[in-house]
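Issue: ligand-bound run for flavin mononucleotide - logging full I/O for the record.

Environment: standard queue, default settings, no custom constraints.

Inputs:
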Amino acid sequence: MIKELILKNRSYRRFSQEDRIEGQTLMELVDLARLSPSAANMQPLKYILSYEPEKNARIFPHLAWAGYLKDWPGPAEGERPSAYIIILGDTEINKSFGCDHGIAVQSILLGATEKGLGGCIVGTVQREELRKTLDIPSRYEILLVLALGKPKEEVVVETAGPTPDIKYWRDDKGLHHVPKRALDEIIIG
Ligand SMILES: Cc1cc2nc3c(=O)[nH]c(=O)nc-3n(C[C@H](O)[C@H](O)[C@H](O)COP(=O)(O)O)c2cc1C
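Outputs:
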């Protein structure tokens, strides 16, 4: 079951934008992050939820999509995320956040997958512009943005060859391929 969930939990970048996500659903997902591990149990992460079209539209321009797909500028209007969770580090609790935010986003994504949703972690963010547009106080470091929605694309995982090209790619039918290094390549001892 967990392998099935992890396999289904791909990075989705095209969504049925008209399928709205409720604030309550986002709260349930953040609750999964709340219950996840945190170094020294400091729990320095804070969250901003966005699920209204107007707020979503203020976030979208500050995100970069699929760097390897050079001729794709990102999701078109109608295929954009219907919600976002912005993951912040509260510098009044700690100055560094270790891998807490990585664990938190994976918990959220697995929960979203279970609910029939999908998402994409976005680390390439125009942070200062986003801070300005959402009026995020300087005490919070913007760590990651998680885009969420009902996926409108299919993604397949493949095992990369012996000299692997790890770049994901999209075929002429729009199917998104994600090569993963083989197990015997990554276990080195
Ligand atoms: C920390 C982190 C930052 C990422 N940043 C971006 C990003 O800025 N834009 C994007 O389109 N995808 C981003 N991704 C998604 C990766 O491209 C994706 O995980 C990778 O292509 C493998 O696909 P998979 O998630 O389906 O296994 C990010 C993933 C991680 C873990």
